[in-house]
Amino acid sequence: MTLVKKTFLVFVSAFIIQLAVIAVLLGFGFRQSENQWRQVRFQQAREMAASVLSGDTVRLESASYGGQIAIYDANGQLVSTNRGMGGMRGSMSRILSMATMHPVYVDNNLVGYYSTGEESFGEDSANKALLESMAWVFIASLILSLGISLLAALYFSKKVSSPADRMSVHLHNMTEGNITDPIVPHGSDELVRIAESIESLRVRLLHERTVRAQWSQDLAHDLRTPVASVKAQLEGMADGVLAPTSERFERTGRELKRMESLIDDLETLIRLESPETKLNVAAIDADSFANELTERFEAQLMHKSLRLNKTVGVESFMGDSFLLSRAVSNLLSNAIRYGDEGGQVDLAIQKEGGRLRIRVHNMGKPIPPSEIPKVFERLYRGEFARTSPGSGLGLTIVDRIATLHGGSVMLESTAETGTTVTLSIPASTV
Description:
five-stranded mixed beta sheet
């Protein structure tokens, strides 16, 4: 059932319930009015009977009773009657047994009886005119209210369903792969918030599609080059064109290691970007963390005659030791690879303003300002890094690890101050 039909049925059902409640209240009010009317008529008949039996002419002139009435003295003799109520004669016991006989007391003395005809509220001419007017007003109000309710139900259902239908169409198109058409928020505040969320999702999916396409092209390119090189070397040696020298095998092995590194980093990034990825958060000893990194890169540092200067300003911090070690290892690897030979690489672990900051700094060729916003993108490699080894996923992995810890990564690079990458973790994880 569509939203229009559901909303329409809700309005109609609500109207029927209200109508039933009004009918019950009107019936209750009518019964109350009828009872009060009977009490007033009973009081009028008793006052008239008392006036006649007591001979009080002044009181009789003010007494008024428009229905049938027969008045009897204490002996049961008819004294006064109107509208054919006479003829009530017989023994006292017979008279008193009549259902319509009522005693009349004046000063606590029984002076007689009176009897009234059967009366109905609707038989009274004034009451009858009133009831007819009320019936017509009720019917007219019912028809008018029903029309207004149906129009309101139709308008409201259209008002609600129209933007909902548009969002449904957009969502269906998105499931079919069409994510280029923007969604314009429209409708109530709730529907506007839903539409804004869908539009945000659409923009994100569109961005992811673009990045994925570019990533696939870059990945194919980065894999095709070493594969083509290895293939050419092996085919050349197989055909006897190239000599199977140790140097050639070493060059082929480097190409294979490059592919292996790219595949390993790609696998790591895919795992880190999975929604199921959970951090294994625990206390990390800061000195041990820094010392393990120093030992890991000792050979590379010596190869380029670099010194590693460590600054540890905290005793421990909270985080996933394996992932943070992987992130800082990527930063140190880049710092060593692009640092000036014979220079220095700085590693600092400090707490600043309630945040843990891990900085890696080196002096070397600066990264152009235009490339800094792109260095964390998948497979992006700047002009100066295209000829150096690496997968192009290292900083992307660092950024993802920081994000998983609720933190961020910032890179600054100038010719005067060198290149500094800062991994910042919020205080909640420290």
